[in-house]
Structure formats: structure tokens, C-alpha cells
Amino acid sequence: MSDSSLEALARGDPAGFHQYGQKLYQNGDHVKAIEVFTQSLRMKLPDPIGILDNRAATYCKLGNFDLALRDAKQMIKTDKSDERVGAASDICIASTNDLQGYLRAGKILILNKKPDKALEMYAYGLKTLVPDHSRRHLLQHLHDKLGGKMASQFQDPFDRLPLELAVMVLKQFDFRQTVALLRVSKKWERFLTSLRELWMCVDLSRARKKVTSAAVRSYIRRSRGMLTHVVLDNLSLPSVEKTLEFVSRCPRLEHLDARIACRGDKFYALFKDCKNLKTLIMSDEINMDQKHLGMFLSSLPLLERIECHANNGSLISEVSWPEKLPNLRAIALGASSVKPVFEYFQALHLPGIHDGTTANSIPNLEELRVRWNPRIVRSPYLFDFNQRGFPRLRKLDLSGVNLHRLSDLPMSLEDLRVHACRPIGPFPFSEVTEEQIPNLKILVLTDNNWITPETIALLVKPTLRILHVDRCQRLTGNTNELIAACRQSLELEELNVSHLCNMDDKAVTKLAENLKELKCLNLSYTPISGLTLKALSDARMQQVKAEAEGAVITSENKLIKIQRLYIRGCDGVASDAVAYGRASGIEIFT
User: Could you tell me which of 162, 299, 361, 439 has the fewest CB atoms within 10 Å of its CB?
Assistant: First the structure.
């Protein structure tokens, strides 16, 4: 039919124009049918939903599902309660059997291989239509049929996997993720709840909201009361007391990390009989005195690690540490209160630390951490070390305490950290010899105004891998001395020289030339500029290129290959220099 004939038909019988489009569709002339349906919509005929439905079906024949879905959504928008339900064919006579917008949209999505979206569309239609709609049952039938078909295509992995493999998979999730899996389905909830080994460790540290005692009790029940590891955190205040009581009744408890507020004597009364405890960590919200600390050590014979971050002094007559603690491997004490010296044992009291009499009582101690807070108030505690007390010590961490003598360090020491401490008398490391601490790998000296390049030279060993000298004011002189001290460890991988005002571009260049094994460098709050980032980035790219080409790398031609760089507070570094460094592969923290 010519265009003039179409116009004549439109003038004489506009409704016939729509029928002509249907005729074109049936004859397979889909492109012309689209044109006719579009013109029909412009005429504003009394049945726009039927025309949209016909055009959507035609778009489907042409494979244009996006435009087809647009028309279907327009049908729904035009009349959400329209009840046209023709489903036998794609194009039907408008006066007898048109498709509803929900049905058309669902069919389009199925043709476009999106059955999940089609199911959502059917569900949306059921939610929108009134319950007594005369054609609702047809939409319900399509929804149930598609849902059943999709369910048959998917299999629950836990139905297919052997139980041992399913447990191995589930153990890869942390506790918060395991709890989230309970909400997948009732079937998963029953399955996960039946696996006692998934609930032996309860860690509340990553909870997104406050946890109630009822939730903790349900976790304990799933473990049949046999949980072994507990991290108590993010508890609602009314639930703290009941939760502690529930946990204290678990007979196999081995690890307890309590990050909640509780009186020290009450906490001791609850957990003194947990004979299987190997790790006991008490946050700074649990005020524990020396008296109850000693009682804990006496009542828990298997204890390997104890941390008390809010320790207080006690009367000397009330404090009694066990004579032998053969299993104890780690002690961490933190304190902030002061008691009279003569009547009380101080908060950081460690029996025998001065004279070495602990050699027989704690022979296997490997980690010792002593921290005084706040650091503004200097500790009255005088730390004097005798290596005979701890012959197997690997880590020594001191913060905010007064130091008398640290020259007699054990040969086994691998990690030494001294933060904001004050020397009493001679410098603590003044008598350290080259033969001492031969296995030292980590040295952290921060916020100490008595550290000098000579001190660094005494402590840096060939085995050293990590060195921090952050906020040590006496290192702000000639950087050549500091670099010379660092060079004693040719394998140094991490260096922190933040807050050193003389660590400029030239000094960093010298560091890069002498410490070629560095992977991590902290230059925060130093006067460097973008030149430092460019030099480190260029050196990295050249080294990467040489390695890719298979070039022979020697100590002479090797260049520094920084992986992580910290430049917080470096006002002289522009954003384009940061972008240049990141483009070279360096992870930069600003």
C-alpha cells in the first residue's frame, strides 16, 4: 500500500490504521509494521496499550529487546490494572485478546535470556494488582511456572558436595560472613546450624551493630556449648553481664579476648575456673590489679599468653605470682595509675625482672610488652633488664617507661621496640656490643629524644629487615651518619624516617643509592618534593625493565625498587608527582 493510500485510510478509518499494522506483522513486514504502529500512537487512538503491545512484539521479532521492553513498561505505566491477557499468540486483534504489560515485559525478558528479571517483573505485577483482579490467576500461573523451572536448573552446592568438602569451603568464611550465610535460605540455616565446628570460634569484632546476649547464646548452642575461641566486642551494654556468664560456662574455652567494660574482680570470679584457657586478653576497659593478675596466673595452669591493658597496683602483702609458669610465652601489661612505692607493687610489676630470678619461673617467655599510658605523664616504673630472666625472649616492646639499663639484651631477641621512654642514668644501649642481639630483625625507636646515630649504629645488625626512627629529634643533624648506620644492614626492606626535618631530596637520594633492598619507605612530614617521587619512580621502572629483559643484576647496577611509599604531610609534593609515582607501580599513601 502506498503512502497516499495510508493517509486516505487514516482519514477514513483511524482504527483501521492499527489493524493494517497487525496485517503487516502477520505478513512478516516487521519494519513497515513498526512504522505503522508508531504513526498509530501519534494519532492518539483510544487503545494505546494495544498498539504499544503490538509494537513491542514487533520489536522482539527484530531482536531489539531494549525498545520492546520500553514499550512494555510504557504499557504498565499507562494502566497498571489493565487486564488484557492474550497469551496464545504475539499479535491478536485488539478488540478480543491483547497482552497485559506485565506479561509482555516478562516474555520479552525471557526471550532476552533474563529469566530472573522476568520473575521479578511477574512478582511486581502480583504485588501491584488488587487481590480480586479477574485475571490475576494467569499472572500467578506464569510466575509459579517460571520460578519452578528456574529452581530445577539450580542445585544447592551443599547437596552435591561431600560433607567434608562443604565444611572445608565454609571454614574459609570469617564469623560475620558465616552468620550472613544463615539468611540465604531456611535450608542453609538448618545445614549451617547443624555443623558444630563452624561455631567453635565466635568473633564479634566485625559486627555491624550491637550484639545482644540472646545472639551470643544462640552461637554457643550451635557449638553445643563447646566453643574454644571468643572475641567479645560490640556488645550492647545491657547484654555484657549475661554474655560473660554464658561464655564462662563453656568448658573447652581456650582463647578469650574481652574488649568490653567490666570490673576486674568480677571478671576474675567468672573465668578463674576456665582451666583450659591458653590465651587471655583484657582490654583497657577491664581494670585488673596486680592482686587478681597474680591470682589468674595461679588458677590457669595452661595459660600461654596474658594481656592486661589496664593494670593497677596492689598492696605488696596481697600480690603473689606463681613460682613456676612453664607454659607462659607472652605477657603484655598496660597501666596509667600510680600507687605509693613502698606499700604497693606498681601496676607494671614483673617479679624478678631486675635480678634475673625469673629464669626458672618463666623459662619460655618469648614476648614481653610493657606500656605506660598516657605518655604525657611519665611512668614511675623503672625498667631494668637482665637477660638471665628471659633466655628465650624474641620480642621486647617498651612504651612510656623509665629505662635504666638495656645493655644486657638476650641473644634470642628478634624484635625490639622502644617508644617514648626516658633514660635514667647512662644511655640504655651505651654498652651494647657487636656480639649482642645477633638475630635482630625489627628495630622500632619512636618518639625518643635521646636516640642518636651512634645509638642506631650500635643496634643495627646485618640481619635487620625493619627500622623505624620516627620522631627522634637528635637524628636531625647530618644524615650521612644515619645513612652510614643503616648501611650495616644491606638487606633492610622497610625504613621509617618520618618527622626528620633534614630528610630532604638529597638525603633520600643517598638513601636510595645505599639501601637498594628497600621495599617500603615512610617519608611522612619531611621536606621532600616531587623530585623524590620522580627519582624513586624512574629507578623502579628501570629496574623492572632490566628484570623483564633478563639482564644480569649485580650490586653495582641494581637500583632501588620501592613498592610502598608514605608521604603524609609532605606539602612540597604536588598531585601530579603522586600520579606519576602511582603510574610506575608504587603504592603511595598520602
Answer: 162
